[in-house]
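Lab notebook: predicted structure, single chain.

Context: the supervisor wants predicted structures on file for every construct in the current expression panel, including those that have not yet been purified. This is the next one on the list. No modifications to the sequence; it matches the entry in the shared construct table.
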Amino acid sequence: MPPEMKVPAGSGRGPDARSAHGLSIKTMVPTECDTRTSRATNRTLTQSPFNDTAVTYHMRGWHPFPLWDREAPDGLQARGKKNPPAGVTGREGVNATREQIEGWRDSGRSFNIGSRMPENVIVIDIDAYHGGLETIDELESKLGSLPGTFFVCHRGDGSAHRYYRVPGKRVWKNPGKGVDILHWGWRYAVMPPSIHPDTSQAYTWYGANGSKIANQAGPRIDQLPMLPKAWRDYLDTGKDPNAKAAKVDLASVEVRELLTAWASYDGPCPHMMDALREALATTTGGRHDVCMRAQMKIIRYGEAGHSGAGTAMKALRSWFFDALGKDRDPSSEWVRGFTNATQRIAASPTPEDRKGCMEVVVLPPLDVIVIGGQA
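Prediction complete. Output recorded below exactly as produced.
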């Protein structure tokens, strides 16, 4: 591991820290996953991980689609990990057909490869840099050890995507700091042998014993171990997976017109400040989810006549972009979040007799807002 990635023993990120299946990080993350040895220097820029593996993934039960970066320099677009085709992700997404997959493969273009999760698969996404290993340790002490499984990594700090089967279509929650649960209705996974756009490392499949598997088109779904019941019970939100929130279909200009009408830039009321502080002080769960919940609360308060929604949204945006800026471009997530919130609130407006808030406070400068008890 390069000097800048070294961490002290016992910190939860060094060789002595436990992985999600009870092995040390040294065992969990093989030498091949270290940044010095996983560089994809033998790949040409015209090779396409999607074209090479998508049909095989589909035959094994996955739901693959192409990824690319339209803003990357010429020759590097195929190394992107965003811009999936419209309509193939999210709760209302439709799985790509074999015909679509072959059409993308035969388009003459190069792509990385992503996949929506099947309904009976979840991914435990462990981000070591943001405390994910410590969170897994805490959960294992309460719920029992996770069984060994197939996992994907592209860097050598213990971060990994760990794959498990679940009984069926459910809505799953993110359990804590540095750990997200990818499932059929939320996010997607970048799949091997995609090339990471920033590190030029190949995403790589490993078996439960920490050894690189021979076929980088991944395991069959039935080869994944079942997530233990205690973990399933803990992560299951109990929400109806088929429920759809009422929305008004609004064009982007209509969304912005409503936000302009609802969001004032004066001092936020105490309710608005509570919603903002709750988000900025949160240390558990994915930052995406935290931000989306805060957007919904702030915009709802604004629609109901509370003061300072614009000011609070500005502070929330600053926090969200600072939190995610080093990992990915959060712009599209931010826009989707306030668009979804606006459409849902427009579908169920606050009754007139419940509107209004007379309590107003002065928002301190952004750099002195109290976060987690620290100024």
